[in-house]
Write a structure and sequence with these properties.
Length: 878
């Protein structure tokens, strides 16, 4: 193996946690801001035992001066090596002052203090989570050091008219030479990863809000001038989020101002800095002409997520980064509840479970698998994963389900009360939830410490003579390299029994009557549950609402799944039965079988004309699992074949429903009049899009003509992009003009242009690579902007399996090349895009060898970042 110095450094381990030797009670920061060079003066009031040396983190800082209690520090008392500033002989209560210089415009990693946009018109901002604060000043950069912050910003007034930092405003004023200052004081002690500042030319919209506790709060959203009109939807979403957290959890906002800022240059989606949230523009700006329905929902969800962190993350923060899911899993769950309340609960659940299966299950099944609470890491930024977020949210959902609505609220109240102002652990969380309800929840810790998706096996046996139905549940989690022996975890299984007419049966279990739905908990490797008074052999509906993040294995007959798909009164369970059936139909396409394929297409043909069925739900029912999910069903994965088979099963569905019925429905769904952004409008567009996609598989010329007309007359981005996608992916002659038109129309809007790149990166099969290479030469393409790099390379590598996984390996080589270039600009983005290689071990032999070669060539390059080398080394292992 080639030498990889960065990965050879020892990992950080959960087991090695020790409390900090020195704490910081107060921080006073002074910034003298400039685009190329900014100076940062930090006064830290320190507390600790004099015999322990003070060790502060700092990376890429030019140290200008250092003093203790106002006197310059004797050079014998400090040492600056290896990103650590070590000071000896500190006394409890002393104030350490450092002055450093940093270079914002040269910072292409977008971590620490950096420039967004151009040198002439851009603005300065910070990103500190997880370990960015050490790029701004010397500090114990760990989340269990909580301090009160006073921040003074100084800058040229003309170039930086707006100066913002987290906390309450505490004065502004003029300085000589056209400069000015502003000060902010945050009364709530916080870890340094929640620090933020913003400085530049920005416009704002404002709203007054009064909390349930009676505090008057000024809500302010900031963006560059040309986007300020697109901030109103986010403002509404923010207000809804604040009200919801008051009502659902009794949590109110706790400062006098709440600032939100949009930037086009951001590594992540958004960041919950105390009092100064910073958003990737993609998750804040919204207007009907350039924002799709799904993106509107995403804006609402991300605004809510970051706002909810104010309690789950900020008031109660994490002891160390191993506890990341304590804030992220919990906050994702809270956002899921909120979005379900604001929109449709079953559609939201469908979306979240689909995401879990598409993003988290593959992660948990391959070399990148890690527990929701990892036991070690080298680069923490690589652990903001679907496992920590999405599986973490599922674990909270199981706990909430176990406690019930009132019990969970009681538990959350206890958690917030006991841990307010503290840096907590997952044990603190489970402990508080349990203590408030007199229940021991510690068995659920097993879920947090173990990687891999448990397989839940279900077998039913009906005894006519005794009228008993016995359900035997067992679990098994495949071993992984670091965890050869997996343990049983508690698996709550929500279930119902259906009779042959599709009615739910009343349940009699353990001598109790249970209504028609109940939850049993599989808390061992195997258990049986016997239902009494069952008049005939039932069809079990298992794992209702996706009550646990497991893979269910149950030998349903296709007709039984079709019965659930047709009759389950719950929209999510219906969809779930349809997904299981579709997966079996996919197997039929592979093996030449017909039973499941007929059952699936036949049931959907009937549902297609069922009166009163929600249009959005029907759209989702008509969508089989994606290519990534279906790959799990192949021994040696051939993405080109999976694409063909999935297309084939959909054209079969299209033919069974019938081209005429599809076209008729498409036309019926046409809505005259202005764009309707309400639920009915969104549902209509969602179904119309799905119908058009199916029609494109069975009557291609008709579909392309309809798509072309739709593109031209579309009233909003949802319909415009749906039409463009059908034309582009279908290789229609009309695609060229439509793409040119889209580009002309949206050239000035970076978020719309990202869609223009992404839609072309989705062309299926061999031609995708050439298109991506051509688009890389487009003047609008740049690797320096994360959204643009993701739109083209991320979509190609992670969103287009048949395009990326070319049999000749050219997709792998292209990605590896670009990752090497990107790594020197922005290691976080490079590492994230590299996860597209996950799963290469399961590819068929030809592709597998190509992928391995591309990866090991990449691994052998000198000077890779810790971020990228960790991902490449992990993906290559095993
Ligand atoms: N705290 C994170 C943002 C973050 C992640 C900062 C990683 C630094 C490193 C934020 O709360 C978050 O989770 N953002 C998500 C979006 C959210 C809606 C799931 C993101 O950025 O992807
Ligand atoms: Zn978050």
């Amino acid at each position: 193996m080639p030498a990889r110095p960065e990965t050879s450094a020892a990992p950080i381990r959960l087991a090695d946690y020790t409390p900090p030797a020195w704490r910081v009670s107060d921080v006073a920061l002074e910034f003298d801001l400039g685009i190329d060079s900014s100076e940062v003066t930090a006064h830290l009031t320190l507390h600790g035992a004099a015999d322990a040396p003070l060790r502060l983190d700092g990376e890429g800082l030019e140290l200008l001066s250092i003093a203790v209690d106002g006197a310059p520090l004797d050079p014998g008392r400090w040492r600056h090596t290896d990103n650590v500033l070590e000071v000896s002989g500190m006394r409890d209560g002393s104030v350490l002052t450092t002055r450093v210089r940093v270079q914002p415009a040269a910072n292409t990693a977008l971590e620490g203090l950096y420039l967004s946009g151009s040198r002439e018109t851009g603005f300065l901002l910070t990103q500190c989570e997880a370990e960015g604060f050490r790029h701004i000043t010397f500090f114990p950069d760990r989340p269990d050091v909580l301090a009160r912050y006073t921040v003074t910003l100084r800058a040229d007034r003309a170039r930086f008219p707006v100066l913002l930092a987290g906390g309450n405003p505490d004065g502004t004023g003029e300085l000589p030479d056209g400069r000015h200052w502003a000060r902010f004081v945050d009364p709530h002690p916080k870890p340094c990863y929640l620090f933020a500042l913003v400085a530049g030319r920005l416009e704002k919209i404002e709203r007054d809000y009064v909390t349930a506790e009676g505090r008057a709060v000024k809500l302010v959203i900031w963006s560059e001038a040309n986007a300020i009109d697109s901030c109103h939807y986010a403002m509404d979403a923010l207000e809804r989020s604040m009200r919801w957290d008051e009502q659902a959890y009794g949590r109110s906002y706790d400062l006098d101002v709440f600032h939100v800022v949009a930037t086009h240059d951001f590594n992540m989606g958004a960041m919950e800095n105390k009092g100064l949230n910073i958003f990737n523009a993609k998750y804040l700006l919204a207007d009907p002409d350039t924002t799709t329905d799904d993106e509107y929902k995403a804006v609402e969800a991300v605004v809510a997520h970051e706002y909810f962190h104010n309690w789950s993350g900020n008031r109660v923060t994490c002891r160390d980064w191993f506890q990341l899911s304590l804030k992220e899993g919990l906050t994702v769950f809270r956002e899921q509840q909120f979005s379900a309340d604001m929109n449709s609960p079953s559609l939201k659940r469908i979306e979240d479970v689909a995401l879990l299966r598409r993003a988290q299950f593959p992660e948990d099944a391959g070399p990148l698998a890690h527990p929701v609470r990892p036991s070690e890491y080298r680069e923490i930024n690589n652990f903001y994963t679907a496992t920590v977020y999405e599986k973490g949210a599922e674990l909270v959902r199981m706990l909430a389900g176990r406690l019930g609505t009132e019990g969970f609220r009681r538990g959350m109240d206890r958690y917030f009360a006991d841990n307010d102002g503290r840096a907590a652990t997952l044990e603190d969380f489970l402990g508080a939830l349990g203590a408030a309800n007199g229940i021991d929840l510690m068995p659920y810790l097993a879920w947090y410490g173990q990687s891999g998706t448990p397989r839940l096996r279900a077998r039913g046996r009906y005894d006519e003579g005794t009228q008993r139905y016995t359900l035997t549940l067992s679990q098994y989690t495949p071993p992984s390299a670091s965890q050869p022996d997996k343990h049983a975890v508690p698996i709550p299984v929500k279930l119902a029994l259906f009779d042959r007419d599709g009615n739910m049966l009343p349940l009699h279990l353990d001598g109790h009557a249970h209504d028609t739905e109940t939850v049993v908990v599989l808390d061992a490797s195997e258990r049986s549950f016997t239902f009494e008074q069952v008049p005939h052999a039932p069809v079990p509906s298992l794992l209702r609402g996706f009550s646990a993040p497991v893979l269910l294995e149950c030998d349903y007959a296709p007709a039984e799944l079709a019965l659930l798909l047709t009759h389950d009164p719950d929209g999510f369970n219906r969809w779930e039965a349809g997904q299981q059936l579709a997966a079996r139909a996919f197997d039929d396409c592979r093996t030449g079988g017909a039973e499941a394929l007929d059952a699936w297409s036949g049931a959907l043909k009937r549902l297609f004309v069922e009166p009163g069925l929600d249009a959005a739900l029907l759209a989702d029912l008509l969508t089989p699992p994606g290519e990534i999910e279906l790959a799990e069903r192949q021994e040696a994965v051939d993405p080109a074949q999976i694409h063909e088979l999935r297309q084939a099963m959909q054209s079969r569905l299209g033919r069974v429903i019938g081209a005429e019925a599809l076209e008729r429905r498409y036309r019926e769904l046409y809505a005259p009049g202005p764009l309707a952004l309400d639920a009915a409008g969104k549902a209509r567009r969602r179904l119309q899009r799905r119908v058009l996609e199916l029609l494109a598989l069975v009557a291609v010329d008709t579909a392309h003509a309809l798509a072309d007309a739709q593109y031209r007359s579309a009233k909003g981005m949802t319909d415009r992009l749906a039409a463009l996608g059908v034309l582009v992916r279908g290789g229609a002659a009309e695609a060229t003009d439509a793409l040119a038109d889209f580009r002309r129309r949206h050239a000035d809007n970076p978020l719309a242009m990202d869609k223009w790149f992404a839609v072309q990166a989705q062309i299926p099969g061999e031609p995708a690579l050439g298109r991506v290479q051509a688009l890389e030469q487009d003047p609008a393409f740049t690797l320096k902007n994360p959204n643009r790099a993701r739109a083209l390379l991320g979509t190609f590598a992670s969103g287009n399996p048949s395009g990326f996984h070319r049999a000749d390996g050219a997709g792998y080589r292209l990605l590896a090349e670009r990752l090497a270039t990107l790594d020197s600009l922005n290691p976080q983005i490079a590492a994230r895009l590299a996860t597209a290689f996950n799963g290469w071990q399961r590819l068929e032999p030809v592709r597998r060898d190509m992928a391995r070669q591309a990866l090991s060539d990449l691994a052998g390059r000198p000077g890779l970042s810790r971020n990228l080398s960790e991902i490449v080394a992990s993906v290559l292992s095993r």
